[in-house]
Every structure is written in structure tokens, then in C-alpha cells.
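Table S2 (continued). Query chain:
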Amino acid sequence: MTPPKSYLTAAAALTGLLASASPASAQTTPTAPYRILNTSQTMGSGGIDYVFADSAERRLYIPRGEAVLVFDLDTLKSVGTIANARARGVAVDPKSHHGFCSSSPVVMWDTKTLATIKTIPVQGRPDGILFEPLTERVYVFSHSQPNATVIDAKDGSVIDTIDLGGAPEQAASDGRGHLYVDIEDKDNVAVVDVNTLKVSAHYDLAAKGAAPPAWAWMRRTTSFSPSAMIPQPLSSSAATMGKSWPPCPSAGVRTAAGSTPKRWKPSVHRATEP
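Corresponding output:
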């Protein structure tokens, strides 16, 4: 049974976040399942969309209603609130200690004091949000144009906007100059060059699934896994770590003029991988 939204289940609702952010996770063996470490009742009212764990500052951000609720990541006790922030998600720059949420306008705050620094007007309807570490920029995604607004995490200035060719949901950075954004209404993944802020390619996922709502980058295997690639129901063989789908045919890759498409291998990993 699904627990009420007024409750935060530390491992069930935040499986990847708490498991990867907890200091104890380094002691977990590769075959150990996730465990519920703690539960806590959240404050406020309204639904919850994206939840963000800041492993450096040990804080957990939950946008809900008209505010972003902030908890201690280890104890799940409330440590503060970012007011006047009706947002879907949160991103944090660990170097500048600046936090951002996908509200309109975007709210920027000091992650140490939780004090609001400024608000940043943006176009569209902010939804997903991501911090890109190579360039220290924050991407605010919108289903309507412009699809992405790029913000300098150091001072909160708007650098540019990007037309992704469709409605983005989530994104992941490979840390090497590429941002992969799942385009939910087009069944593809847009590849953004984070230095030029141009879309360099689209990977077609129509043959693998539809309307990809989520996205993860497997750093250890340098492969990526949009949830649309996981068949329903998920078979035990597909859930085995290391198993992967065949590379997409080159015909399914649309690249920008002058660029060379690279073959890629989407992988399905077990949910119990620590």
C-alpha cells in the first residue's frame, strides 16, 4: 500500500538519494537490498514532486506547497524552510553553496544559512532543475518554451535559454561536457553541449518505450538509463546488474550538422545496487 504523502519514507520514497548520500552506504555490499533507515512526517500541505538530497551539506530538500522544506539528511529533523517558493525541484552548487528551486521566479538561497539571496525571473513553466558541475550552471527545465533556462550558479545571472525541441522532464550530466535531457513528448533524449549551450543530437527512444519521465546516468559504466527503456513488467533477467539492451541503430540517432553520432548502450541495473 502506498503511504500517505504526508509521510516521508526515507528509503522507499528516497531510495537512491539516501542510499547514495549516507556515509554508511560505503559499507554496504553490492548485493545487499535497500533498507528503510528512518521515517518522518513532513510539514505543510500539497503534493511532492522532486526530492533532492545535498550530500555535502547533509540536507534534504522537499518542495511542497508554497515553500521548500529542509531537513537534516541523517536525522530527518526539520532545519528550516525556504519561503515563497512554489517549486517542483531543487538544485545545489556545492562550491558556491547556493541553492535554487524551479519556481517562477526561481529562488536562490545560501545553503548554509537558508537565507534567500535573490529571485530570478524566468520564462516558461519551471519544472525540473539540475546543477551541471563542469560549468557550474543551473538548468531550469520547462515543458513550454523556452525549454531550458541556464543560470550562473555563482551569481544567479541568466546566461541563455535553449530550445530542446520538446517538453523536457529530467536530465543528467556526464561531467564531461554533455547534458542528456529526456524529452517526454517526443520520446527522445536531447544531448546538450554545456560549453556552447547547443543541442548536438537527439537519441530516439520510440522503439524502447514511450514518454520517458525519469533519467539516470550510470557513471561507473558510462551508460545511461531512461525509465522508458525498462519494459513493464521488468523481467528478472533484465534486472540483473550489467545486462543491457542492444545498442540503438544509427538510424535512430539524429545529430547536428557536422557531428558524428556515437553508438551508446542503455543499461538496466537492479534497484538494489548501492
